[in-house]
Write a structure and sequence with these properties.
Helices cover about 5% and strands about 50% of the residues. The protein is mainly β and about 425 residues long.
């Protein structure tokens, strides 16, 4: 407990000693490591307009000191350079135009107080020489390495002679393409990073378009209005990014069993599906589509070289469709895929219906089906005369012959069909028409 109270008392005294200093002018305040023993580093674009001050009770004897590397080499600032202003019970001791790369502190009744470090930034302004952008040799990484030639080491000294470096912060700006799912398109935007520490090498994600990389800063120079920048030569992108947007031709059939929703692929055959390919053009020059059954990924079913394709799936099974995009030299490629299933076939025949009895309720003879790739249904009367025939399983018979409803009774249906799974159907059964007008 005593140790905690002692620490709190030290921090309180430390904070109050800091509060007695003030620095006026256009100055950037740089926070430093506590181990340096310095309150802060104050940086200005020229120190002629900067004043550092210390306020103390009139009962105290105050003297200013400066040092270059540690308190061991401190020297007293000539009183001719210190302006004293009386404020009643306190006085303010000020130094105008302090020296560059120097520590300043006061001695109050022989006791040294906290220290300030002053920097004239115009004498240490970082040099940004060149920035070179190179795409990774590993196509799977999709990254760009920026090699930065700069000279920006600026140091200060703590009270014990330890040398510290300022943490220089920069912003990186370049154009980047980003895939937007909602609009199914790549959108170009200017990307600017937050202030960040930049070494001689920096790795960023591939921009997916040709661009220049610009390094701006540093943060201190930007604050002081003397920011500078350096740009790379035009970077030519080689990486591609692939996306697939699929849509299926819908079949409005109320008698199709387990039909998929509008956002799903596959289901009942025949399934006509359109695959739209997207990539970061003009970097992407070639599109290759390959369709496989998942049970045999060594032998493709179909292959195309178009941006978008349509294909009708007639066979039951699990499918995977690949899109591969490459740049003009085919040095790098990227792929996307979509998977779905075509269901096995099913066919069921009802044995009655009630045409014109209650509109919209069982008033048409339809089979229940899924995944039929061929179909033919024929209606006969009791004497074997053909009354009606249709080849679309989603359609049916409305109970009419020559435009008029047939009389109630027993009729006969014969159906020949083939399923997506190769199953052949040949079914026949009675149909009971229960009521007509």
């Amino acid at each position: 407990m005593k140790r905690v109270l002692g620490l709190l008392l030290f921090l309180w005294q430390f904070a109050n000693s800091f509060a007695q200093y003030s620095v006026d002018g256009t100055v950037y305040t740089y926070s430093v490591s506590a181990s340096s023993g310095i309150q802060a580093v104050y940086i200005a674009n020229g120190l002629n307009g900067v004043t550092i001050s210390y306020t103390a009770d009139n009962s105290k004897t105050v003297s200013w000191y400066s040092y270059k590397q540690s308190l061991a080499d401190k020297t007293k600032v000539s009183t001719s350079l210190v302006n004293v202003t009386n404020n009643g019970s306190t006085s303010t001791y000020s130094i105008t135009a302090p020296e560059d790369a120097s520590g300043y502190l006061v001695e109050e009744d022989g006791v040294l107080k906290s220290t300030l470090w002053m920097i004239d930034y115009s004498k240490h302004l970082p040099e940004l020489n060149t920035i070179t952008a190179k795409a990774s040799d590993d196509c799977s990484s999709k990254s760009v390495t920026l090699t930065i030639d700069k000279s920006d080491e600026i140091t200060y000294y703590g009270i014990n002679g330890t040398e510290y470096s300022l943490d220089m912060q920069y912003k990186l700006q370049y154009n980047k393409l980003t895939w937007n799912t909602a609009s199914s398109a790549f959108i170009s935007s200017s990307l600017t990073s937050d202030w960040q520490t930049v070494e001689t090498s920096l790795v960023v994600d591939a921009p997916l378009e040709d661009t220049k990389f610009t390094l701006t800063g540093d943060e201190i120079a930007d604050y002081l209005g003397i920011s500078q920048s350096v740009s790379s030569e035009a970077y030519e992108e080689k990486f591609t990014e692939s996306h697939i947007v699929s849509s299926q031709t819908s079949v409005d059939a109320d008698n199709e069993v387990d039909s998929l929703g509008t956002d799903s692929l596959g289901g009942s055959a025949p399934a006509e599906i359109t695959f739209n390919g997207y990539s970061n053009e003009p970097v992407a020059s070639y599109y290759t589509w390959t369709i496989y059954k998942k049970t045999d990924l060594t032998n493709w079913i179909a292959r195309y070289n178009d941006e978008s394709i349509s294909y009708t799936f007639n066979d039951a099974g699990d499918y995977i469709v690949y899109l591969v995009t490459t740049n003009s030299t085919s040095s790098c490629q990227d792929s996307a895929s979509v998977e779905f299933s075509i269901s096995e076939s099913f066919l069921d025949l009802p044995n009655y219906f009630t045409p014109n009895a209650s509109e919209g309720e069982n008033d048409e003879y339809k089979v229940a089906y899924k995944s039929l790739v061929s179909f033919k249904a024929t209606i006969f009367n009791r004497w074997g005369n053909k009354l009606y025939q249709w080849t679309d399983p989603s359609k049916g018979w409305d109970g009419k012959y020559n435009g008029k409803f047939v009389t109630p009774g027993v009729y006969f249906v014969v159906i020949e069909a083939k399923g997506s799974d190769g199953v052949k159907y040949k079914k026949a059964r009675d149909i009971n028409i229960l009521t007509t007008p």
